Structure formats: structure tokens, C-alpha cells
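Comment thread on ticket #2218

A.B. wrote:
> Attaching the input chain for the structure job we discussed in standup.
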Amino acid sequence: MSTTEEMNLEIQEAIKKSLPNQVGEALKQRLEQADKDAKELKAQKDLNLHLQDLNENQYSQINGYKKLDERNSKLEAREKVCEEQELNLKLTIAELKLAEAEKRNVDMVNLTALVFKSPVYKEFISETQHGMTQWNQSTNRNEFSPTGGGTKIIEKTEN
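C.D. wrote:
> Ran it. Output below, let me know if you need it in another format.
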């Protein structure tokens, strides 16, 4: 037996000896109620401690989630900045490609102009044309075919 139960028995015996039965019964009921209340109070305190622990755990989880939310917000902001930088880089690359294409175009125009203005080229063309004229005259071919794409030379017919 526990000390509380022993004390209760001793008190009950003392009450029975010194007080009338009605008073003893009332005290006995009160003591039983006090024991029940003490057990219930202990259970409530245990429950309260357990709920406080749960509450603290939930607060720590909430704080953890807040930190994760802040980190995610920062990461999303950094991601947006990176996307903007990537887009700017792609735009810059496209602009550079366009500028280089335009430079190549200008260079080709200049090169073509230089070639056609060149006295060497003019002399070559002149010689080639003169040679073709002589060749055509020597073979009697100076007419172009109307159906052969313009490159086939046909024989000259005499009337």
C-alpha cells in the first residue's frame, strides 16, 4: 500500500472512533472525491504538459516553414534575375550575330565591287568574250538555243 492509502485508512479509523457514523461517511465520501480529483488533476497536468510540448513542436515547425518560405522567395527572385540575364545574353548574341551578318554582307558587296572594278577582271572578261566570238565564228555557232536554257549553242543554218 502507498502512504496515501495508509493515511486514508488511518484517518477513516480515527473518524470512526471519534465521530458519529454520518460524519464519518461524509468525510469518507469527501476523501474519495479528493482522491479522484487529485488523480484527475494529475491527468490534466500531464495532458497540459503534453499539449505544451506539441505546441512547442508546432511552433518550431512553423518557424522552419517560415525559413523555407523565405529561402524559396529568395531563390525565386534569384531565378527571375538569372532568367532575365539569360534573356539579355540571348538578345546580345542575336544582335552580335546580326551585326556580323551585316558586316559579312557589306564585305561581300565590297569584294564584288572590287572584283568587277578590277582591271584584271575586265581584261579577263574582255579576252573571254573575244575568244568566244572567235570560237563561234570559227565553228559557225553564234545563236543560242531557245529551249536549252540559254547555254547550248546550236549551229548556224544558212539560207
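A.B. wrote:
> Thanks. Noting for the ticket: The chain has one domain: 3-143.
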